[in-house]
Structures are given as C-alpha cells and as structure tokens.
C-alpha cells in the first residue's frame, strides 16, 4: 500500500474530504493567468514615451497674435471694426486724428510757403551766379576790384546756405504730412480682430500705443509642448509625436500608438535650449505630412489645449513597469545627443 494511503487511513475524516471542482478550476485559472502575465511582461513590446501639455500656436512667429499700434499721437475718431471682425489686407481698423482739427491744413499751408521760399532762394542763387560771372569779367577788364568779386562769392555761399535750410524745412513738412496722413490704422493682412484695446472718441493715444490685437488667417499651426527635463535630453528633431486636442474624442494607448483612436501625428521641429520659468522645456511640434491631417481651423483654433506623447525606443512591458516603479528615464539613445548638438550648432 502506498505511503500516502497508509498515512491518510489514520485520518478518516481527512480522507473523506475532497477538493471542490471550483477550487481546482480557480487554481488552474490563477496559474495560467500568472503564466500569461509573465509571458505578457516578457514578450509584449511597449513604446516608451515622454508626455507633456501645451497649446496650439502658429509655426511662423509672424502668424501669431500681434498688436496693432497707433502710428501717430491723437484722439480716436472712428472705429471700423469690433471684437471678432474679419478683415482683409488694407481694411481700415481705426482712425486717429490730431487734437487740432486743422492740423493737416496748417501743415499744407506751411509747405506751400516753404516751397515758395525755396523757389525764391533758388532764383536768387541763379541771379547771384550771373552777378559773379559779370563781376569776374569786369575784374578782368579792370572795371571791378577783387573785393567786389569776393563779396559776390560770399553772397552766393550765403544764398546756397539759405536754400539748403529752406529745402530741409520743406522735407520736415513733407515728413509731417506723411505722418499725418497715416492716421488710419489698417489691417496688415487677412485675419480677424481678436480684441479692441482702446476706447471711444474721447480716448487719447500716443504713437506706438496698442489699439487692437490681430490674428492672421490661414496660418500653419503647431503645438507647443512642455516636457520634463528628465526626458528632454532624449528628444530629437524629427521625432514622431502623438497629439490629443482639447474637446476631441480619443482613446489613447501611449505604449501602442498604432492602435490609438482620435489622436493625430506630429513631428518635432524645434527644441528650446533652455528651460522655461516652470522648469520645463518647450518643444515645437508641426503637423506630420505622413499622418492624418489635423482638424479644421474651425474645430482646432489657436490657443486650444493639447497633450502630446513623444515616442522613443520600443522595449518590453516588463522593463517599462520596472522603469516606472523606479522612476528611471526612458531608454538612452546616443544618436539623440548628437542630433541635438548638430541642430544647436546650426
């Protein structure tokens, strides 16, 4: 008789107890589940990522929100737009007039006087040159003295100086008229008036004061992502980025970007060499031409919130869990350092 049976025969109650079938099933399930988890951790690939939050902006700095400034000092006379107005290049925004309503007329009258004075001085110079030639001939004939010749020359030099002063005065008046004629602030290009900053007709503005903010139309969009300093050293120009936009439905798996739904592709085009005020580094991401196009401008506007995942190396799920538990950085890529150094040198 086997040892186990001889041993159990001494314990009749224990021998009568049998393990329930459900417990056997659960034991098998736990064993198989543990084995499946181990195999999953060892053999399943995982794409390492560095995530960050940011906003939608324009790729070209000239396409971003900008201020429209008053070109001359004066009082606001009339607004031609309001918040949200769509304008085309050259459309009037606001008209600023001088406190003196007859300012331009006075400048035009002064210019007319300066022009008449300049013409008179030019005529006087021509006459003085004729007198100088006549005096030189008389001197050769012995009918005039050397002193008369010198006085004629001094007279010409004096008249030429007066003519130069009159010409400078005319130029100053022309500049004043040119500035006075730029009292109308116009749209630099097609776009939208984001906000009107100045007040009504009782508001006085100085030259250079902002009167409105302007957003250009049809700009090339980008996303400003802010990445932790622990991961920024691994990012390089051209890296792929998965983007999630505010208000856009999404199912995101950071480790499996190929199965994510509702995200959009991007590529890194710029990396700041220094951290911002919050200790994070700015990464500029543009639209990936090889991926799905980003939402229309009406659905994805400048300033909208975004979240992005920069994709790095592919590792196993087990390694990634171990890395996250130990708070280690992503897999080091030597070529990333060289690429960023070359980009900085350029």
UniProtKB/TrEMBL annotation:
Alphabetically ordered keywords of this record: Membrane, Transmembrane, Transmembrane helix
Alphabetical list of InterPro entries matching this protein: MFP
Membrane-spanning intervals of the chain: 25-47
PANTHER family (alphabetical): MEMBRANE FUSION PROTEIN (MFP) FAMILY PROTEIN, MEMBRANE FUSION SUBUNIT OF EMRAB-TOLC MULTIDRUG EFFLUX PUMP
Protein name: HlyD family secretion protein
Organism: Kordiimonas lipolytica
């Amino acid at each position: 008789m086997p040892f186990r049976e001889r041993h159990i025969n001494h314990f009749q109650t224990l021998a009568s107890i049998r393990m329930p079938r459900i417990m056997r099933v659960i034991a098998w399930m736990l064993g198989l589940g543990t084995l499946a988890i181990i195999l999953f951790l060892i053999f399943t690939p995982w794409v390492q990522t560095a995530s960050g939050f940011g906003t939608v902006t324009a790729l070209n700095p000239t396409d971003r929100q900008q201020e429209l400034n008053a070109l001359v000092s004066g009082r606001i006379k009339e607004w031609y737009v309001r918040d949200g107005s769509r304008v085309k290049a050259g459309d009037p925004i606001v008209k600023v007039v001088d406190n003196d309503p007859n300012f331009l007329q006075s400048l035009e009258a002064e210019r007319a006087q300066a022009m008449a004075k300049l013409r008179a001085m030019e005529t006087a110079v021509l006459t003085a040159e004729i007198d100088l030639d006549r005096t030189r001939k008389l001197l050769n004939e012995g009918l005039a003295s050397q002193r008369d010749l010198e006085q004629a020359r001094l007279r010409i030099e004096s008249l030429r100086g007066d003519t130069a002063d009159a010409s400078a005065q005319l130029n100053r008046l022309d500049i004043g008229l040119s500035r006075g004629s730029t009292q109308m602030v116009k749209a630099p290009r097609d776009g939208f008036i984001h906000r009107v900053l100045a007040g009504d007709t009782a508001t006085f503005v100085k030259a250079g004061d902002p009167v409105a903010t302007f957003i250009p139309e049809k700009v090339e969009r980008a996303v400003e992502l802010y990445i932790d300093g622990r991961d920024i050293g691994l990012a390089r120009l051209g890296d792929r980025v998965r983007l999630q936009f505010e208000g856009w439905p999404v199912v995101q798996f950071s480790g499996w970007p190929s199965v994510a739904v509702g995200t959009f592709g991007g590529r890194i085009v710029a990396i700041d060499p220094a951290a911002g005020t919050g200790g994070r580094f700015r990464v500029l991401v543009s639209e990936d031409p090889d991926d799905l196009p980003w939402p229309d401008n009406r659905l994805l506007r400048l300033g909208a919130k975004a979240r992005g995942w920069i994709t790095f190396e592919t590792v196993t799920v087990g390694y990634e869990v171990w890395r996250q538990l130990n708070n280690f950085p992503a897999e080091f890529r030597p070529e990333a350092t060289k690429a960023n150094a070359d980009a900085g040198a350029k």
